[in-house]
Amino acid sequence: MIFDKRSLVLFFSNAILLHLMLLINSGITGFGLNLFILGPAFIIAPLYLRADQFFLTTLFSGFWIDSALPIPFGTITLLMLLSGSIMHLTRRRFRVEKNFHPSLLAQLINLVAGLTLFLVSYNCGFGDFYTMLPLSIFEAILSHLILIFLSPWFFNFQRALFILFSAKKDPESLPFV
Amino acid sequence: MARIRLERLTPIITLIAFLIIWWITPSFLKVFTKTTFEEFQAPIWIATRSIENLASATSAKTKSKKELINEIKELKRNNAYFKQIRSLNKTHQAEIIRLEGILNLPSRDSFRYELAHVIQRDIGSWWQNIRINKGSKHGLMEGDAVTFIGGVVGRVAKTNYYTSLVNLLSNQNFRISACFAQDERPLFYQGKGTNLWGQAQGYIKNAPQDLSTDSIKPLQLVTTGLGGTFPEGIKIGFVPWLEPDNTGMFQAGKVVLDKRLLGIKEVAVLIPYNRLKIEEYSDDF
User: Fold this and answer.
1) Hey, is the C-beta of A55 within 8 angstroms of any chain B C-beta?
2) Which of A22, A55, A81 sits opposite B120 (nearest CB)?
3) pTM of the prediction?
């Protein structure tokens, strides 16, 4: 297995996104809101990397996110691997050099991840369903509005890091590795 | 006949293999992995806190001399006031020790206070937690009480070496025995998350029927000291409304918590002396 340095770049950029999200959430506690904007962290690895590299990057990113959030360990990792595998299989359908398709995917996966976390938090007894639901819907709407602006910036940031670290800036041999 | 390209199935095969491995992995290995990642993240949060301090110090430098002089005046006043209180406390402490000595009473100091900074807050519809910059290295253990200037903050839910996770008072998993300020009968308190307006709240059950309250002069809810985690008489919140509960024998009501709880920056963790003594003895053996 030849090591692809884009794996490291993607892992660190995902960690930065997580850290930014937690910092924002720490700062807006006065409003009692908790934004979830990790959708873009799920996208570039399966669309750009080979299967083995995608798996390693996603595994470590997932563990990093799981250990930072108060959820059962492995929830985000499994979700990232599952969604990533589906994206990896169908990646020839997406134009990854532009931001439109990745941004749409980020919105979709963010919604699925948010819903999963809502159900997990509810099952763990973190809140009352009828208290949680309206607030969660409001938070989800706000998060997705922020993602409209955040996703393109984040994807451009990751591509800029590829160039900065002299890594390959195009996706791996499409359609399949 | 077209060849089947097995390479295209690599991600799915890897995913299935991973799921099987994950399923059979013992839970202690998962806990170990999680703890390892958490320990790697701890320095990042502590560094973030230091950067915030640096930023606030830099912004303080931009203040004019007049503003600084006014702040110094205010600090001097506070300093003088607290010095008086400190000397008064010392006198009281000496008197307590003297009386305890005469009456052969055990010491009332059951806890030592470990001050900590809040380095991360997860407060929203899903979670009601904060992370502090003190951990097992500083003697904290799961279940320790956490307080601040406005009363109870919560309970330590998990400790790492340098950091700890605290379940807030508004967390659904936070339950405690409580009583009203001038009524010693215990009742049950539980967190209830934040409402739509972002206010932290809780609720009480098993309140006696002879009590009444109103929003102008709400009853103050405090800790009972039962259970030993929290000392007696620490403020939890105010109860502006009581109504008969579903049994009809008691009353229930919502608890309004301190607004400062959501923007909390510094806390004190109460570490029991007894536990420290037990640890010391166990080391001796």
Assistant:
1) yes
2) A22
3) 0.82
Are B11 and A88 inside 8 Å of each other by CB?
Answer: yes
- With residue B114 as reference, give the H or E element that holds it: strand B111-123
Mean pLDDT score, B139-152: 90
- Whether A55 and B200 lie within 8 Å, measured CB to CB: no
| Gyration radius (Cα) of chain B, Å | 25
How many Cβ atoms sit within 10 Å of the Cβ of residue B76? 10
User: d(Cα B116, Cα B147) in Å, to the nearest integer?
Assistant: 10
- 8 Å CB contact between B48 and B118: no
| Closest C-alpha among B140, B240, B142, B154 to residue B191 | B154
Task: Give, as one character, the DSSP assignment of residue B133.
Answer: S
Domain that holds residue B104: 63-108
Query: How many domains does chain B contain in total?
Result: 3
Q: Dig out the tokens for A100 from the structure.
A: 């439109």
A78 touches chain B (CB under 8 A): yes
Query: Based on the domain organization, do B34 and B67 belong to the same domain?
Result: no
Mean pLDDT of B26-42: 89
A62 in B contact zone (CB under 8 Å): no
- Asked if the C-beta of A176 comes within 8 angstroms of chain B's C-beta atoms, the answer is yes
Give yes or no: residues B56 and B67 share one domain. Answer: no
Q: Write down which residue in B61, B76, B96 finishes a domain.
A: B61
Q: Please tell me the distance in Å from A127's CA to the nearest CA on chain B.
A: 5
Q: Could you tell me what percent of chain B has a pLDDT over 70?
A: 93
pLDDT at A127: 61
Of the pLDDT bands very low, low, confident and very high (cuts 50, 70, 90), residue B77 is very high
Residue of A nearest to B29 (CA): A73
